[in-house]
Amino acid sequence: MSKLDKQTPDTAENKPTNQAWGGRFNEPVDDFVARFTASVNFDQRLAQQDIQGSIAHAKMLKQAGVLNGEELESICNGLQEIKADIENGNFAWSVALEDVHMNIEAALTDRIGIVGKKLHTGRSRNDQVATDIRLWLRDEIDTIKPLFTKLQQGIIGLAIKEADTIMPGFTHLQTAQPVTFGHHLLAWNEMLERDFGRLLDCRRRLNQSPLGAAALAGTTYPINREFTATELGFDKPTENSLDSVSDRDFAIEFCAFASMLMTHMSRMSEELVLWASAQFQFIDLPDRFCTGSSIMPQKKNPDVPELVRGKTGRVTGHLISLLTLMKSQPLAYNKDNQEDKEPLFDTVDTVADCLRAFGDMIPAVQANKESMLEAARRGFSTATDLADYLVRKGIPFRDSHEIVGKAVAYGIEQNKDLSEMSLEELQQFSDQIAEDVFKVLTLKGSVAARNHIGGTAPDQVRAAAKRAMELLSIRG
Ligand code: ARG
Predict the structure, then answer these.
(1) Which of 36, 175, 331, 426: CA 20 to 30 A from 463?
(2) Best of 337, 338, 341, 344 to mutate for ligand 1, by most ligand atoms within 8 A of CB?
(3) Are 403 and 328 part of one and the same domain?
(4) Does residue 81 sit in the same domain as residue 190?
(5) 126 Cβ below 6 A of ligand 1
(6) What digits encode the pLDDT tens for the residues 433-444?
(7) CATH no. for residue 425?
(8) What letter would DSSP give residue 2?
(9) Are 393 and 414 found together in one domain?
(10) Domain span at residue 387?
């Protein structure tokens, strides 16, 4: 049974012929079609922005001489009352009235009478909805921004704490070279910093006012688009009326940003899940971010990172939905665009929840320094350091690579790390190896030697963390 079949019949009207456009119709719209084409069940989420847009439009209509002062006052008061009713849950939404725009307009006319019908002069639901979604998304972006900053502060804070903590760095998930845990965490921060930049780009590009584009071609009334744009906090009015009512690229752009962010968070999640496992034991996740198993008493499952990893799929799915929705749409507005809202809403909610969950969890991650160090000791992670040492002694890199390869093979056979071999053992592979070799074979020496911008040395991690914190502080 479809969701639409289950919807309770509309209480506002028996015959859902819409009063806003029913004039040219000979019969009421089919009951099912009314429910099929309605969007009010989801687009009521735009109510506050719809009212905000209507108030700006009404003020402009007064300037244009369409409304007098009294009419403007009564429209604004009526809209404010409706706003309060919606906030308090005292508003009866009607499916027969199709969408958020017509529900509010009808309620206004019910309250203030005929003057309410003047509000829609010089605009269309097409520019109205385009304005509402932009306003809504802008508000949501502004609530997402601090969540982002909080998460980054948490990551950078942990990086500072773990600047000296040594762990194995991986390529192909095989032990490669030792790194510091702080350095690894700052890699995550870089991903997020770029994502934040993409979010700001999206906000900047969407912040133009489509209001006044009307249905598609503009309007014959002497409207003032600059006024409404300024009133609504937009940078300026959009340039082209056809484009204004039709494109949803700003929503797509947000979903592209969100998909990238979720992809990054899925990578972090994957690492957290691996690290929290009995096999790695690199970290402990606090109990409050985990759940148990109903059958296996010993289990502590890293649900939060697993779910964030899983939710990445749905956000990327929404991006694909919106791209496919927009594909091949002729100018200008098409009803297809009503389908933009649910994917966008869900993307915003999902991203905000994931940022929040991570923002709370990351600062509470406990590093098991001993296990990390032990893991770095296994896997010959200082082999490259030995090769570089031989190069400094005058051996060409390709030859030193070969020499160290042989030493590693010997180590595997003897079950010994390079740093555990005696000088005599090491000298079997090259007579260039001297007592000073042990300085480079230690894990500490290895990380400290990578002492340049972007390198893993603890001092570099501290300096990079400081720069990253500074960037956060000038975000405002
Ligand atoms: N509910 C519609 C939407 O979300 C509003 C615009 C409807 N315009 C129209 N001409 N039917 O897109």
Answers:
(1) 175
(2) 338
(3) no
(4) no
(5) yes
(6) 999 999 889 999
(7) 1.10.40.30
(8) -
(9) yes
(10) 380-475
Residue 448 alpha carbon to ligand 1 centre in Å: 61
What domain count does the chain have? 3
Q: Is 278 exposed, middle or buried, given 0-12, 13-18 or 19+ CB atoms closer than 10 A?
A: exposed
One DSSP character per residue, 245-268 reads HH--HHHHHHHHHHHHHHHHHHHH
For ligand 1, whether the C-beta of 128 sits within 6 Å is no
Answer whether the bond into residue 251 is a cis peptide, omega within 30°.
Answer: no
Active-site residue among 172, 294, 328, 473? 172
pLDDT at 163 over 70: yes
- 305 with 321, same domain: the answer is yes
Predicted local distance difference test score (pLDDT) of residue 279:
95
- Which of 71, 89, 121 terminates a domain? The answer is 121
Q: Note the pLDDT tens digit of each residue in 443-472.
A: 999 999 999 999 999 999 999 999 999 999
Residue 39 CB–ligand 1 contact under 6 Å: yes
What pLDDT shows up at residue 10?
56
Dihedral pair phi/psi, residue 209, rounded to 5°: -90, 120
**Cβ of 131 less than 6 Å from ligand 1:** no
pLDDT tens figures, 20-43: 777 788 888 999 999 999 999 999
For residues 255 and 156, state if they share a domain.
Answer: yes
Q: Is 293 a catalytic residue?
A: yes
Above 90 in pLDDT, residue 344?
A: yes
Q: Which amino acid, residue 157?
A: G
Residue 199: count other Cβ atoms within 10 Å of its Cβ: 21
Q: Is the pLDDT of residue 219 over 70?
A: yes
- Ligand 1 close to Cβ of residue 337 (< 6 A): yes
